[in-house]
């Protein structure tokens, strides 16, 4: 494990100490947890953005499904005649 030095605002330091005390953990542990969650969130956001751009490109190419087909498919969920997801014609 490596060591990184960070300058914290006094208020952040106080809150960090309070959280660490309540959890009976070290400040380093709390910081590690917080950064791990932040990094995971950023990775998910990056993936969502990538998927959004891909979806926009597909729509621009005309790869779309009519809303009535989507509604019909959704309404079939949980019935004896559940439909497969509709696909674009392209």
UniProtKB/TrEMBL annotation:
<dbReference type="InterPro" id="IPR010985">
    <property type="entry name" value="Ribbon_hlx_hlx"/>
</dbReference>
<feature type="domain" description="Ribbon-helix-helix protein CopG">
    <location>
        <begin position="3"/>
        <end position="42"/>
    </location>
</feature>
<dbReference type="InterPro" id="IPR002145">
    <property type="entry name" value="CopG"/>
</dbReference>
<dbReference type="GO" id="GO:0006355">
    <property type="term" value="P:regulation of DNA-templated transcription"/>
</dbReference>
<dbReference type="InterPro" id="IPR013321">
    <property type="entry name" value="Arc_rbn_hlx_hlx"/>
</dbReference>
<dbReference type="Pfam" id="PF01402">
    <property type="entry name" value="RHH_1"/>
</dbReference>
<protein>
    <submittedName>
        <fullName>Transcriptional regulator</fullName>
    </submittedName>
</protein>
<dbReference type="InterPro" id="IPR052991">
    <property type="entry name" value="Non-func_TypeII_TA_Antitoxin"/>
</dbReference>
